[in-house]
Amino acid sequence: MIRINQIKLQPVLQDEEAELKRKAARLLRVELADFLSFFIARKSLDARKKPEIYAVYTVDVKVADEQAVFRKLRGKNGQIQLVEEKTYQFPTPEKAVLCERPIIVGTGPAGLFCGYMLAKAGCKPLLLERGKEVHKRREDVERFWREGVLNPDSNVQVGEGGAGTFSDGKLTTTVKDPKGRMREVLRIFVEAGAPKEILYDAKPHIGTDILLHVIENLRRQIIEWGGEVRFESQVTGLLTAGTFGQNRQVVGVTVNGEDLRGGAVILAIGHSARDTFQMLHELQVPMEAKAFAVGLRMEHPREMIDRLQYGECGISLPAASYKVTAQTASGRGVYSFCMCPGGYVVNASSEPGRTAVNGMSYSGRDGANSNSAMIVTVSPADYELYGGTGPLAGIAFQRHLEERAYEIGRGAVPVERYGDFRGAVLDRRFRTESVANAGRCVEKSGFSRMAGKNDGVFSKVQAADHGSVLRAWYPGFAPAIKGAWTFAPVHEILPDFLNQALTEGIDLIGQKMSGFADGDAYLSGVESRTSSPVRILRDETGQSALKGLFPCGEGAGYAGGITSAAMDGILIAEKVAAVYRSVVE
Fold first, then answer.
1. Do residues 141 and 301 make contact, with C-beta atoms less than 8 angstroms apart?
2. Are 158 and 152 in contact (CB under 8 A)?
3. Strand ranges (DSSP E) for 418-538?
4. From the first residue on, what is the mean pLDDT of each consecutive set of 10 residues in the chain (585 residues)?
């Protein structure tokens, strides 16, 4: 196969594939009729010299005598390579044999893709989901946003499809992929109804509206191949055989009061299955606290982000994305996460009395605002500062922050303008440093001393360059949030060291992206579910110390998004098939 890199076209064309074929034929010095096949391998936008913007492509071409064509061009065109086509192969093409069907706990990306691969291999898996099927789940989520009625077993975090169902639907990952699992994930998504562009877009996404149907189609395919999916079926225990130590083995699960035996138990729970983590801890399943990240959602007008990224290009382009990082003086990194172009902040709570937020986009990405989480990594050492110990300390830390968010928002999503947030953080830091320098106590700074004020002014400390540029340029700019929201002191949610890191990081980013750190940008909180705060330990066979138990995906601490979770689901399907094939041979 011949690969041609760096083909540049105007970013908006009626028939991009026809123009790409013509350019490819000219570069290869062949006729269009000589093409046996033609694929777009990658597409990205190059806006480095804005407003001059190009779409940049990599294409793969097959012709009858590729060696001859390549030899003729060797040394004359550095764009062209001869590459070997790689196709993912499940490592057990023959049907794997299990004494009993495997049980998969959870139907997020990890569980669905693990189930898909095992069903295709003939293993007839049973998938158990504590929440509802995806369309009933959507009804519960929309009711919560509309009426504030939370169903703890059917919400943004819990239910078929996992937390990623109500997100931007990004399909990017930094996981290395020598086996081709990522390409296989994208191929299966397209087969299930996702747009074919995700196969080559540099920043592929599906959007929550399309994801709903893709997830349903994946489930139907699993069932068609002999699998079974049960909803509103919460696993509350593990069935084990043997004694503690090397001989202890998982042989099934308890669900809705019923004991179900299985040939393997794949634990594909989500990062918000907190009661399940507690149950596993009580059963002495080996696990540990791990680092994750927390922060706040930050909103800007979509038009402003588009201008920052594209300039005044004069053409209609997809809503612009960004990925920003900053290193603070204390050494903590501040970075954007799950950026949602033309999207919404959503109330992503899953427990009564606690508020968490996430970002979500529909496939058109045509909302008025763009948002991303601005987050800081926290570690087990940070949890210990707040009294947390043991493998579940990160969950306790999350819950503390979510309770604060719920309290200050009185159940609604709390929102604060960045200028007010920044002023309050600087004011508190000034007071703290003054106390330290003077060696005496002063009155604790906080929103409570200004209770009842709704004008958004929570601090005397203001900065002229963090003022009203956004309000002047975009007079209709307001928070775009799914669910009830209210102005509140967001600076009271996170510990001081995180607030200070966020303020410093956002200001540093604002020096590079004009207007990013404007005082009228909106912050909302709390973004506490970026990834799992727990890792359930597994060995090279994919199993826990309890043989027969396969921790998998984001909740188990081995993924960080839709694609990486789906890839881990495929990996564990491979491990399950390999282990149990060797048993019966």
1. no
2. yes
3. 481-482, 485-487, 522-527, 534-536
4. 92 85 92 92 90 91 89 77 87 61 96 96 94 97 96 96 91 84 95 95 92 97 97 96 76 94 95 96 95 97 94 84 94 94 97 97 95 96 83 95 97 97 88 58 33 31 53 89 98 96 96 93 96 96 94 95 95 89 47
Q: What distance in Å separates the CA atoms of residue 197 and residue 40, rounded to the nearest whole number?
A: 9
Axis-axis angle for helices 208-224, 109-120 (nearest 10): 30
Closest by CA to 359, choosing from 321, 324, 395, is: 321
- The C-alpha atoms of residue 452 and residue 448 are separated, in whole angstroms, by 9
CA distances from 206 to 161, 209, 491, 560 (A): 13, 8, 33, 17
Q: Which two tokens stand for residue 193?
A: 């109804």
CA distance 140 to 150: 8
Q: Bridge partners of 254?
A: 237, 259
- What's residue 314's pLDDT? 65
Say whether the peptide bond before residue 51 is cis (omega within 30 degrees of 0). yes
Is the CA virtual torsion 334, 335, 337, 342 positive or negative?
positive
Q: Which two tokens stand for residue 99?
A: 């004494």
Give residue for tokens 């400390």.
461
